[in-house]
Structure formats: C-alpha cells, structure tokens
Design goal:
elongated; 2 helices; single chain; mainly alpha; 59 residues
C-alpha cells in the first residue's frame, strides 16, 4: 500500500468516525454537551475538507 493510499484511508476513516459521533450526538439531550460535540465534529469535518482541497490544489 502506497503512502497516498494510506493517507486516503486515514482521512476516510476519520471522517466516518466524526460523522458517527455527530449522529450519536443528535440523540443526546439538548444542552451544552451536545452543542460542543456537534460543533467539534462539524469543525473537524470542515478542517478535513479544507486540508483535502489544499492538497488537491498543490498537486
């Protein structure tokens, strides 16, 4: 497995885990904890998207 393939798998697995975390947070009661989890997951997914966009443009 090449380094590029491994990087893609890591990004895919991380994105999926964050998505599952956000989906699980939706079943939590409303409050600060739920808001923080949803905000953190959203921010992390946006950061991954930005990183992927920058990597694609530099190639």
């Amino acid at each position: 497995m090449t380094r590029e393939t491994a990087d893609k798998l890591i990004v895919l697995a991380t994105s999926f885990a964050l998505f599952l975390g956000a989906a699980a947070a939706l079943s939590m009661e409303r409050g600060t904890g739920r808001t923080l989890v949803l905000g953190g997951c959203t921010a992390a997914l946006v950061a991954i998207a930005v990183r992927q966009s920058v990597r694609k443009r530099t190639k």
